[in-house]
């Protein structure tokens, strides 16, 4: 088969994943997988590392709601060379902190050659509030979602934005213990759940790529900082990785039958394999993919705070211990080799019992 081999890498946000639950710490996994598949589809939680990022030419940066719609077959993905990014700033950001973000955006234009529109400030503070579920997973709410959508619409209709980067002011009065646990590599990202709410709302409403970067007061240095959280300590803004990701994020295609198809378009029936943490198999995207001819690979080593294994949902998967082992499964699958043939013992064929 000559068509490109396509893998989806999913690490759900805000569930304390041991790998991918911190500041872009699943990016090394994505870099390795991209070497063995032709197309890697993943989402901002995997690729965003604050001021750190990596250009993976064959990786597709797809927001979580858009990834769910893609996996269900409702939306397709159309690769682009360059998106014009609209910058949306929360009115609740203080003037000095706003200036830091505008300077980061200008730096991305001057140093990386990215294309941005003029920016928009929301007509009311977004008033983000953070929450946590009984499981410990993080989520949140937006006090003024209509203000967010009005600003996004302005960027699309008046500035010609093809993707939206949102910067919202997040509260300073976060749970101190949760923040310290996260900074020490032991807890859940307290911002992740609320960030997902923001980007989901924009993508669901306007069907264009969107990602979020939180605006926060600068925390004092911590000598015990975990390497997995350290990317967030490098500056005043997390915006660079979002702008880089959105610059080449594929556009969404709606209604396959009504769309002029291009050879490079990607639809869910062209996904060959999907890789997820072994206890986080309840996402809409994975449930959809499990109904297709897609090899599901679950990784035991990537522990999370939730307990939704594939067996409880009737999902057939190849269970592996580590991402290194998952990479080997992908290589074998791409080559058309049954992984059991690589083991020292191979059971004999048995006669099928007739009914």
TrEMBL record:
<dbReference type="InterPro" id="IPR021763">
    <property type="entry name" value="DUF3326"/>
</dbReference>
<protein>
    <recommendedName>
        <fullName>DUF3326 domain-containing protein</fullName>
    </recommendedName>
</protein>
<dbReference type="Pfam" id="PF11805">
    <property type="entry name" value="DUF3326"/>
</dbReference>
């Amino acid at each position: 088969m000559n068509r490109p081999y396509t893998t989806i890498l999913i690490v759900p946000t805000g569930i304390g994943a041991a790998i991918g639950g911190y500041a872009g710490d699943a990016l090394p996994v994505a870099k390795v997988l991209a070497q063995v598949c032709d197309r890697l589809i993943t989402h901002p939680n995997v690729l965003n590392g604050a001021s750190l990022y990596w250009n993976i030419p064959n990786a597709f940066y797809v927001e979580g709601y858009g990834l769910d719609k893609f996996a269900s077959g409702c939306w397709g993905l159309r690769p682009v060379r360059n998106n014009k990014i609209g910058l949306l700033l929360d009115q609740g950001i203080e003037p000095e902190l706003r200036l830091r973000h505008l300077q980061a955006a200008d730096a991305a234009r001057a140093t990386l050659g990215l294309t941005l529109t003029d920016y928009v400030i929301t007509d009311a503070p977004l008033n983000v509030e953070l929450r946590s579920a009984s499981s410990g997973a993080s989520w949140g709410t937006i006090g003024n979602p209509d203000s967010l959508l009005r600003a996004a619409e302005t960027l699309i209709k008046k500035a010609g934005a093809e993707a939206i980067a949102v910067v919202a002011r997040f509260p300073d009065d976060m749970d101190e213990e949760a923040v310290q646990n996260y900074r020490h590599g032991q807890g859940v990202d307290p911002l992740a759940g609320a960030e997902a709410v923001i980007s989901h709302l924009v993508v669901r409403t306007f069907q264009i790529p969107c990602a979020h970067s939180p605006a926060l007061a600068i925390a004092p240095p911590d000598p015990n900082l975990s390497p997995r959280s350290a990317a967030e300590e490098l500056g005043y803004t997390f915006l660079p990785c979002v702008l880089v990701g959105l610059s080449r994020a594929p556009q969404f295609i709606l209604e396959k039958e009504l769309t002029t198809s291009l050879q490079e378009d990607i639809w869910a029936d062209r996904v060959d394999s999907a890789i997820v943490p072994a206890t986080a198999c309840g996402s809409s995207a994975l449930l959809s993919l499990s109904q297709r001819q897609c090899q599901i690979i679950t990784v035991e080593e990537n522990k999370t705070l939730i307990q939704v294994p594939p067996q409880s949902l009737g999902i057939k998967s190849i269970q592996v211990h580590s991402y290194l082992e998952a990479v080997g499964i992908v290589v074998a699958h791409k080559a058309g080799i049954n992984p059991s043939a690589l083991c020292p013992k191979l059971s004999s064929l048995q006669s099928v019992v007739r009914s």
